[in-house]
Amino acid sequence: MSEVLTFIESNLGRFRAELYAFLRIPSISAKAEFIEDTRRSAQWLADRMRDAGLEAEIIETPGHPVVLGEWRGAGEAAPTVLVYGHYDVQPPEPLEEWISPPFEPTERDGRIYARGSADDKGQLYMHVKALEGHLTANGSLPVNVVVLAEGEEETGSPNLVPFVDANIDRLACDVVLISDTSMFSEGLPSLGFSLRGLAYFEIHVSGAKSDLHSGEYGGAVANPGNALAHILATLHEPTGRVAIEGFYDDVIEWDTGTRAQIESLPHSDEQYRKDLGVDELVGEDGFSTLERLWIRPSCDVNGLLCGYTGEGAKTVLPNHAMAKVSFRLVPDQTDSKVRALLERHVNKVAPPGVTVQIKELHGGRPWKASVEGRYFEAATEALKEAFGTAPVLVGGGGSIPIVVEFEERLHAPVLLVGFSLPGCNLHAPNEWLPVENFERGIGALALLYQKLAS
Ligand code: BES
Ligand code: MN
Ligand code: MN
User: Fold this and answer.
1) What is the residue with the minimal CA distance to atom 6 of ligand 1?
2) Which atom of ligand 1 has the smallest separation from the CA of 399?
3) Is the shortest distance between the CB of 396 and ligand 1 below 6 Å?
4) Domain of 228?
5) 103 and 217: one domain?
6) Contact call for residues 361 and 157 (beta carbons, < 8 A)
7) I need a surface site. Which of 5, 32, 152, 207 has the fewest CB within 10 A?
8) Which letter does DSSP use for residue 153 in this model?
9) Is the CB–ligand 1 distance for residue 180 below 6 Å?
10) Is the C-beta atom of 153 inside 6 A of ligand 1?
């Protein structure tokens, strides 16, 4: 094992230079104009997998391709590990907020700034380099490995479940390994015990057949902007709870052990508040901040569109308004049930004179891990050895909808071993990954592959 770690140690500079090349490719899956760049990113990754000693193939889907890397030389007795990550990234806008351009990776203060550095190219590439460490220093891997990198995670993985079903034998494994989440804090390695699910909608409110003069018509004709504001205002109770009837019916009560574990984490509301630049923290009564983020559902307006928002005052009564509204879900909520409940709620509260239409954009199921078993122990030991301190259990406020689907279809536990940090600006301007986590993480993963074998 020590040759593997020495090899990694002495190649960290090259690894980082390679990551920068990966980060320079704008693989923005959501935008049609980046379709060729997204493919180039897949191609680049497949080439680096081959350089690392894996067999790699690009597999077409109706959308962006999947990259599949494989090494199956460890024999029947050794476990098979499925590594999952994504090579696509979120759009970088607003561009003017970036201190250095999103697709020109730049190091400042020990941080790698670039879109995708943390989510998820940097973390995915750490696996390729950990595998290269074993394959170069030892000529073999301690386990059989399949690396599945998709290019559509940030658009809701529309083609991944069909891909998994169509390749179920090839993806058969004993454990799934994913690095696409965060550590609790700097220097404190973490293993994920949950992920929230997602139900994402557009609410469209329409009124008169065209915009109207707000003086000529205001007060006598329904205003979709006013109506939408009313609808949105009914989504929460003053206590912070979601006010949709039946919304909490399927929310499980989390076990007291996990809640005690959350309680024991070194979290300060005061510091958290200051870091975010807010006056006060808000949320559902009866739950701590971390519980609100990890084990309770939420509802948020993500965007609003209505009327005149340009310079100066235009007196207009808009004929259309739209809100993007997302719900983060926890076990055992489902997006289909939330959709039905939201539709019923909106029909009940929508004011007269407008028509309301709800479109669902994304759905994804929440996940709760069973934090036990030999693979979980292996991850605990590997992180402890690499970081010099035992990992803590963390929940994931975000969503990786494929996780539950993997577990159900492959009958294998999922390990979330993430290396980004809260505050890394995922999906925001100035996304970054600590150089330290990139480097130490590669060593940790190399150790983990070893420990998964024994
Ligand atoms: N890597 C994130 C998910 C994540 C981030 C989980 C931090 C836990 C902590 C992933 O790339 C992501 O952004 N997922 C989307 C969902 C998807 C359906 C667009 C999300 O959570 O918004
Ligand atoms: Mn991600
Ligand atoms: Mn993401």
Assistant:
1) 398
2) 21
3) yes
4) 197-256+292-364
5) no
6) no
7) 32
8) G
9) yes
10) yes
Residue 52 neighbours by CB under 8 Å, 6+ apart: 69, 128, 129, 131, 132, 135, 136
The pLDDT tens digits of the residues spanning 313-363 come to 999 999 999 999 999 999 999 999 999 999 999 999 999 999 999 999 989
In a domain, 281, yes or no: no
Token code pair at residue 186: 């700097």
pLDDT digits 0-9 by tens, 28-45: 999 999 999 999 999 999
Residue 282 resides in a domain: no
| Whether residue 397 sits in one domain with residue 297 | no
Q: Which of 88, 90, 180, 393 should be mutated for ligand 1, with most atoms under 8 A from CB?
A: 180
Q: What is the CATH number of the domain that holds 106?
A: 3.40.630.10
220 in the same domain as 88: no
Atom of ligand 1 nearest to the CA of 86: 11
428 Cβ inside 6 Å of ligand 1:
no
Same domain, 201 and 184: no
Sign of CA dihedral 95, 99, 102, 103: positive
Q: How far is the CA of 213 from the centre of ligand 1 (A)?
A: 42
Written as six digits, the tokens of 187 are: 């220097």
Q: Bridge-partner residues for 21, per DSSP?
A: none
Q: What is the C-alpha separation between 406 and 365, in angstroms, rounded?
A: 12
216 and 248 in a common domain: yes
Same-domain pairing of 148 and 38: yes
pTM over 0.90: yes
Atom of ligand 1 nearest to the CA of 154: 19
Q: HSE on the CB side for 234, CA within 13 Å?
A: 17
Alpha carbons within 13 angstroms on the beta-carbon side of residue 13 total 1
Domain count, the chain: 2
- Please state the atom number of ligand 1 nearest to the C-alpha of residue 180: 1
Residues 139 and 217 in one domain: no
Q: Is 119 in the pocket of ligand 1 (CB under 6 A)?
A: yes
Residue 124 region by backbone torsions, left for phi larger than 0, else alpha for psi between -120 and 50, else beta? alpha
